[in-house]
Please model this.
Amino acid sequence: MLNSNLAVQLSQARARQQAQEASRLSSPFLQHLAYLFGPFSAVWALLWAARWRYSDAERLRELESKPGGAILLDLLAWRVTAHLGPYQVPNFSKSKMHEEPLRVLQDPLLLDYERMRALSRLGQLSQRHLAALGFSPPGGQPGSPLKAIEPILFEAFYEDPASQTQTPGTSSDTHRALAAKIILDVVAACPFEERCVPAWVLSGLVKAQGIPWQVGPQGEELRATLLCQLLRTPSNAAAAGSLREVREYLGGAGMKRKEDTIWPLKAYLLSGETHDLLRRGAKLVTKQCPGSIELQMRRKRDTPSLQTKRDLRNLWTSILLTAGWASFRHWTAVFTAQAVLQLAAGVGGAIAGTLVLEAVWSAEEQVIQSDWYWQDAYGSVPSAAMVVINCVALAWASRFSCILPFVACRLFKDDYLDAHRTFP
Model:
């Protein structure tokens, strides 16, 4: 009798232990992790094979002319792809995939779709600093990355003195916006010693019209920021001292204006301020050409720097999208204290999940932009670790209503707001 009771107790204990192990294995986190790990591993393997296959420069260049090849190149050069597997952009840089678009842009009789395709390819590459530093003039001519993109600078800033209607920046809005993004990327990637540009670029910049230089108050601040970046190069500052329009621009009082909107925070984040930037640019010019510009009185900024405002706007947009989606998911149409607290807890958890995912994404971007990650032959171990981190982070965040807004931000918001933009 004693033995039978002991056997029953042992079997019950064994059953409880098995039930506990089964519950641990069936936890939502582990289930989601298992669902994610398979597809992410498959994508990583495909990207590793692509990194190996297209390490051959000739094979990668031939892909552009094959059916569907342009789409595959777009996928391989996509910013999101760099977070999913081995880094593909180094193959593009070694194969000098920028040379053909730059050669095409030298043709004044380009069709719109040809110009758009060339600018899009260059824009994909210029977003990565080390790829932008690899830009060189077609034909193996010596020169800096800014010398290589001279056809784009010409399109954006050159003014034809023989024409009364031609002013800098008069191409189509789409082309103008893409060209400006490439110029900003390349200038940011270059050390200030290598930012030498022709004098017509400086004069054209202060007179350029349309997108993005005249889009809201921040467009003017973007113009002044780019000019200051170029004037950090002594030769550019010396050339600016002999350009009347540049001296007049830098000698002005500048502007301080908020976006015209009823939302106070949006007006603050989209505001523009240039008086300190103009004074900084004037000091750089007078350092090379003393007395050429009269410095304005120093004034304190009412808003943060352009970089800080853009970063805050990117984060605020992500939080708004997350809060809206979480409110929709947790809305019960019941107006009790408990329902309101549950709604607030759901929205708060979703925002916390978004902040964690954004932090992981930003850290991965820093790794991807680093020299050691670029020089890694196939990026096998670091990219595999990145995939594991992504799976763990997404599996953890799946308990909150933040996955869909996070994916939407990566697919749409980042490109629209130029989330990667920096102004060193």
